[in-house]
Predict the structure.
Amino acid sequence: MKRTLFYMLLFAVIFFCAAPFIWQIITSLKPSGELTSLPPLVSMNPTAEHFRSVIYRHQLVRFILNSLIVAASTTGLSLLLGSLCSFGLAKLKVPFSSPILAIMLSVSIFPPIATVSPLFIFIRALGLRDTLLALVITHTVFSLPLSVWILTNFFKTIPDDIYHAARIDGCRSFHIFYRIMIPLSLPAIVTTAILVFIFSWNEFLFALTFTSTSSRTVPVAITLFAGTHEIPLGEIAAASVIVTAPIIILVLLFQRKIVAGLTSGAIKG
Amino acid sequence: MINKDRGIRYVAPALAVLLLITAYPVFYVLYLSLHRELLIFKISKFIGPDNFFFLFQDDRFWNALKNTVYFSTLSVSVELALGLCIALLLNRSFRLKGVTRAVVLLPWAIPTVVSARMWELIFNSDFGVLNYLLGAHINWLGSPSWAIHAAILVDIWKTTPFVVILLTAGLQIIPGELYRAARTDGAGAWKVFRTITLPLLLPVILVVLLFRTLDAFRVFDVIYVLTGGGPANATETLSLYAYKILFQTLQFGYGSAISVMVFVCTGCISVFYIKLMTGSTPR
């Protein structure tokens, strides 16, 4: 009896989380004529027309490529700067190291809207408007606090003895960094990479303001999706399904790492 | 800690870009907020705090502030309550636990705008599945009183997973002996929850509240896509209002003044929670 209740509640939770996705898939497969009528809930004549349309007519592939380039570059840069910085903060003597860490973390609570107007002027002055580089720069900076936080916490768990031993053997600190620290920290680095990637892939405000046509990312493209006559419901659904699929795979594969990354610091600190 | 190395060389690059892209804009936005700044006409004139005086008489600003506070309060409290229930539900061993956790994570992982688009379809008043299932004819996104709640529902759906993940992790570090001891003493489930789970979970709950309140307070994506602030500004939040003034009317001075207010509110919220946190963990 108690067990049945448990599974019923569990089912309700799963349904609440998954139903909008399922509905999106169902909608994306409906022929245009059936989109604006209910019932039937599920179409008897599923079609791939909306998928073809978003790929061939709406250049979705291009926006996906933009998003991929931005998210991948952001992840790489954020990890590079973040891991160097974390190594310094966790293992070396840095003057004012706790205020530096505090400044970095305080950036993560900055409301993006409060910095968007100066950044817009800044980016325009540099001639970076409507470029992917503008997004890579801003995303990297706004993801740095997260990278530094997770990696510093992880580096601190690696014993100092390893560092001392390597030093005595004559290793320079930079060699210790990339020969010893980086390989030992791979799990934390993968976790950080996933979180930064998802952050950049999903970011909207900067992408909306700094890009106009050629450098649009997926969230912006989906927002500004407009049909010639009416709201292209089928296309929006198809596009949503296409951009959600990789995230679903990422989450299914790496849910443990994502959970570890989200909870690192929040629980201990 | 090692003495000989100058660690600052490792820290400097990250610190430099961070200061350039965040500290500098914070000062620049203050500077802008004290100017009449019209980008297209190349007008930039120092006007002191006039933008702020105007702001305090601007009904649309107060409306946006009210909407933002209402949105944050309601969505964060429901997320916390719902998240706590789900975390307690998942905090036991059962088959397919990994898959369940992954499904619960999904709404958090997808772009907010995509989730808003998904719900837009569900909320459609003429052929949306929600009205169909309820057998109702509610104009979810078109009527002022429903629209803000529709946006809150989407936010709850999208961010409860985050709350669940943090609370589940918090539950796992509560020592099992405590529960067993309480059981032997004959404490009921509610008593155990009230006297053991809740107090020990409190630090994590405060962290969750801090993150979520800050996040909800700067809400932009969901509302931009779902309602655009309408109908009749019923869902316009501070971030959205600032965005419209900045990039639709191109008044960079006044828009920056609104941004500064968002910043000030965010700062107050952080200080409030950090005070609570340092008060709740005796050291």
